[in-house]
Records
---
Amino acid sequence: MNKPFSYIHPQAEVADNVVVEPFVTISKDVIVGEGTWIGPHVTIMEGARIGKNCKIFPGSVISAIPQDLKYKGEKSQVVIGDNVTIREYVTVNKGTEASMKTVIGNNTLLMAYVHIAHDCVIGNNCVLANNANLAGHVEVGDYTILGGSTNFQQFVKIGRHVIVSGGCLVNKDIPPFVRAARHPTTYAGVNSIGLRRRGYSTEQINEILDVYRILYIRGFNTSTALKYIDADIEQEFKRRIKLLDGSRQSAVGLSLQSFFAVFVLRLRRWLAALSETEVDALVFLYQQKKGFPFYP
């Protein structure tokens, strides 16, 4: 273990083959697993639990106390899995009494200037691009990619295999397997490319597309859409959309273009249900330049 010009507290548990570059500070009650590299000017504070073969780049601060006025000094932790890469100037805050820990899963990449606030849970194999900022209690599912300069409101849940476009401001839950983009952040389709990379078959992807057509394109509200999904979709797949049930935040909605498409679909259904006399009345009103009656 190299430690020139660095400070490692005697009560810290650092594996023998960990490389500690100059000007690193490691406080007490810290555990660092085998094969990890800690770059210059990194600060690791009390309560950090860092797995094997991680790389922590210069300027990062791990397990600082939460930026939460309710924090009363409880002995909380930051738990980081194996093979995690933490790039320059990342900040990861420890948990509060709500969950007592902030968690980052295995094989996750945190690019430069990412901020992970207290009590967040990041899944395995995730990528958080530069300047992604997560407020407290945010949950991110496995294999999810958060674009650069994205911001996430506290308590938001992001499903598995999601990709969020750069610059998004996210204040609602994002269900699994989708792309989220635009301003405000809206549903932008299924993450089919990511799913193929993860080994999903065309049949499985089509099943996911069917679910989100019901949820977003057919014009139902969420509760009605879930009833249709419950009736039409196999039990194994219904388990995958459980994020929508009991969410603290509502799910992201449609873009303006998609909303217009749903409006046209509803209008067509409404017109198709009219009797011949009602159609004649509509034509008469239009000819009188009084316009159509308000769409119900």
---
Amino acid sequence: MPALAYLTSSDMVPGAPDARDDLFELEHQWAALAPACAARDLHLRLWVWDDPALAEAVDRGEIDAVVLGTPWDYAPRVEAFLATLDALAAAVPVLNPPPLVRWNARKTYLRDLEARGVASVPTAWVERVDEDSVAAAFAALSAAELVAKPVVGANAVRQVRLRRGAPLPPADQRPPGAALIQPFLPAVQDEGELSFVFCGGELSHALRKVPRRGDYRVQASYGGAEVAHAASPAEVEGARAVLAAAADAVGSTAPPLYARVDQVRGPGGRLLLMELEVIEPYLYPLQGPDLGPRFAAALEGALRREGGSGPGAGAPRPRRPRGRPARRWAPPWAPRRA
């Protein structure tokens, strides 16, 4: 009866006094995943990723594996988050694995994918978004409007739309440091973004994310909406190619437990990569009624692979006896004991 920690953030817990406006997304996702996993005897429990009690539970052998769910506050503390995952992975399987997560945590991963042939939105990389870097980006990208995003960021926080000849937004609204600048693509406001959700390397479902009228951000926090999308074979193969390029970039031979490929149509109608999400993507269960069973099957397969190869492959890797920790680990936020 494997017990799995499903990581979230303190503001993405039902009943939290400071709960985010998009808490309902966790609730929808949990309702899809938890029962389907339980049907395979895989029992998910919500854990806040920076709760010191998590370390105690790992030490006591109460957690058999960790699944990244909705730790949506990680970006401002990305190094602490990554160090926590590394420490967890020294004791139990972590899905998706920390090397893949670390690579995906900085949007510079887009360079790796483009170098491997993935069609991507043209991008200028800058150390800061200021008058000089924006002027250079307008010249390099030949666009009337641009969008600037933090290299480490999520949910369009500190993301800004820039218009040629217009004043820059205030500094406290712009990316706080290194950023990527891309042309604004009108298709975002027309067709929206196309998202392809994968479990264990297999397509679960696809959808269109459309912004609220007058906006360009597709997230629910800004009034965005979603509709199911019947993906064509060519679209599915294009999304699969993104996953293959990512596997090559990190040297992985196993598919990620979950992934979301976000694309948008360029001026010529070709789908271009906006983001590959393999850390904590929302998986849009309302647009994918079979997400739960597909996720659970992929999770069972991923845990089976943790048994290694050769004779006995598929058995869980050896565990220490419950109540008798073989080692103590502590993430960077945990208090030290005397």
